[in-house]
Write a structure and sequence with these properties.
Distance between the termini: 32 Å
Radius of gyration: 18 Å
Structural class: alpha/beta
Number of domains: 1
Strand content: 5-15%
Helix content: 40-55%
Number of helices: 11
Number of strands: 8
CATH class: Alpha Beta
CATH architecture: Alpha-Beta Barrel
CATH topology: TIM Barrel
Strand order of the largest sheet: 2-1-8-7-6-5-4-3
Shape: globular
């Protein structure tokens, strides 16, 4: 299997924020260092599990700054850029490139629906504002305006848009994307997909919150897929999928932060008005992590 520049396991790093609003740089740096030592292939701050929608600009910038410093060039850092306006998204992307990011995870936020032309213009502007690779992020379960296959096809022809992370529940859509872009763009799975299946059809890895709490297990699964040992990969995948199923019952950020708390990382609770993990959720996450040897 030939490898793209970005490939493998990219945890969506959480954003630990104190009650004062200050980013807890110490715990975030320790988490990132431990994830790198566990073998992950990259770090993605300000993904969905990073609660980008609940952070102000100063907090977002600080999170990315801390992750870059903690990575120390050992793995690529692909930071999330999300906005409702082109101008603001372009400004964020340029600043993250200046800070030293290896790539941009581009996210479109919208209140009113946006036409296909507007969606195309948004992502095109981000790509043209930076010289680093851009990963498109699409999550039709939460986003007001999604990326259609024709728009994805057009965006795949922009030189530095080389990846897409699709967080739909539809693995068939991923195959449609792979067929449509004909190698111009590589596909990353989400926690809503079964990563082994996505790797089998041509994916290059996954960007997902659960990798924060199960990095070694996720990397082991990736290596089995990379070698084409699909039977062993499915044996590794089954207990990991049980973990994901537990997470699907609750707010994902609450689950990942709750799991990290159980592992000794004082990352706090999700930012209000999100609710923290209830006692029964904590116990369910505890059991799921214990089952895969992650406690």
């Amino acid at each position: 299997m030939s490898e793209a520049r970005f490939h493998g396991v990219f945890p969506y790093v959480v954003s630990p924020v104190r009650e004062t609003g200050e980013v807890d740089a110490g715990v975030l740096a320790r988490l990132c260092d431990d994830l790198v030592k566990a073998g992950v292939h990259g770090l993605t701050p300000l993904g969905s599990t990073g609660e980008f929608a609940y952070l102000n600009w100063a907090q977002r910038r600080r999170v990315v700054e801390v992750v870059i410093e903690a990575a120390q060039g050992r793995v690529p850092v692909v930071a999330g850029v999300a906005s409702t306006t082109v101008a603001d998204a372009v400004s964020q992307a340029r600043e993250f490139e200046r800070l030293g990011c290896s790539g941009i995870l581009a996210i479109l936020e919208a209140y009113f629906p946006v036409s296909d032309e507007g969606v195309f213009a948004y992502f095109k502007a981000i790509a043209e504002a930076v010289s680093i690779p851009v990963v498109l992020y699409t999550n039709p379960n939460f986003q007001r305006s999604d990326l259609s296959l024709p728009v994805i096809d057009r965006l795949s022809r922009i030189p530095n848009i080389g990846y897409i992370k699709d967080a739909s529940f539809n693995t068939g859509r991923l195959l449609s994307i792979i067929n449509r872009v004909e190698g111009r763009m590589q596909v990353f799975a989400a926690s809503s997909h079964i990563p082994t299946c996505v790797m089998l059809i041509g994916g290059v890895g996954w960007m997902a919150g659960p990798a924060c709490v199960a990095p070694r297990q996720s990397v082991a699964l990736y290596e089995l897929c990379r070698r084409g040992d699909w039977a062993a990969a499915m044996e590794q995948q089954r207990p990991l999928w049980n973990l994901n199923q537990a997470f699907a019952k609750y707010n994902l950020a609450a689950c990942i932060k709750g799991g990290l708390q159980l592992q000794g990382y004082p990352v706090g609770v999700p930012l209000p008005p999100q609710a923290p993990l209830p006692p029964e959720g904590i116990e369910e996450v505890r059991r799921a992590l214990a089952a895969i040897g992650a406690l």
